[in-house]
Amino acid sequence: MMYWWSDLSLSVKIASIFLLTFSWYCISGCMHEMGHMTLLKNNANSLILGRLIGMILVIPFTCFRATHLTHHAKMCTSEDFELWPYCKPKYSVTFLRMFCVFDLLLGTLSAPIIYSRIFWKSKSPLTQLESAGVKFEYMLSVLFWGAITSIVLYVTMTDKVSSGRLSLWWFAPLAFAATLNTLRKLIEHVGLSSFDPMFGTRTIQPTNPISRLISFGNFDLNLHGPHHRHGMAKHSELSVKLAETLENQPDVRKLVFHSYSGAALHTLKCVFISPRVGEANARDMISRPVLKNRA
């Protein structure tokens, strides 16, 4: 894509961006699985692969894992690092709406900020060993991107590759994938008040081909309620867990959608009223009508 970009037809450029966007989206889902250590049999391999992905995204894997495990332990509370700032009652609705737009449009910047906060806080909950791991992972990112930048500068300054071949569109797939991941995060929780794994999440049980493809690419993370209730379950087990839950708790169906569009519409309505989670969201929703699932 990069070397032949200027020679490609418009249709091939669009196809390559679409394919690579989906690939980056799959890679972020892979990083999530590495965080739970549920995809590979060997935890050491999960750590290596997680660090390689984090190196490219400039998100230290140790930070990502600690943040995500905190999210599971304290979902939608003010101590939920992954749902910052939506979980913080002190922020105004106006600020949260503005951050939501920033989060969606510039996910390549917002994600490293959100997932790295756990390290940069003055009273970080990370251990000394974990902090040392974060520093090592930041060093990997600096070396990786430093090497990429040096190579590009070298080949263009020595005329080995024409500078006319350089294009900002090379970064489009990563940016678009970050937007998709932010949208996924918002759909999963924002606008919901409950701390319960099933009632504080939106679950998507795909029925159309596009939703199924997205679900496949992201390791069935859209089955989010069962994922929170059974955090160490493999992604292939989540559909069974959902069926069991629906049989025992029929009320859960109100937050089970059958398409991403239905879940996204419900999320956008909630964001318009109150882009929060947990108690702060419940406070804002007191005088508002209950938003029902019409998917």
Please provide a written account of the structure.
This protein has about 300 residues and is an all-alpha fold. The protein has one domain. The protein is about 60% helix and about 0% strand. A two-stranded parallel ribbon has the order 1-2. Helix 3 packs across helix 5. It is globular and about 65 Å long. The two termini are about 40 Å apart.
The radius of gyration over CA amounts to: 20 Å
- Please list the strands of the largest sheet in the order they lie side by side: 1-2
Low-confidence runs: none
How many structural domains in the coordinates? 1
Mean pLDDT: 88
String of helices and strands: HHHHHHHEHHHEHH
How does the major sheet shape up?
2 strands, parallel
Helix content: 55-70%
Shape: globular
Relative strand content? under 5%
Number of strands: 2
Structural class, from helix and strand content? mainly alpha
Structural key phrases:
295 residues, mainly alpha, two-stranded parallel ribbon, 60% helix, 1% strand
Summarize the structure.
The chain is mainly α. The protein has helices at residues 10-36, 43-57, 61-73, 93-105, 107-120, 128-157, 172-189, 209-217, 224-229, 238-248, 260-273, 278-285; strands spanning 203-204, 256-257.
Question: What's the layout of helices and strands?
Answer:
Elements: H1 10-36, H2 43-57, H3 61-73, H4 93-105, H5 107-120, H6 128-157, H7 172-189, E1 203-204, H8 209-217, H9 224-229, H10 238-248, E2 256-257, H11 260-273, H12 278-285
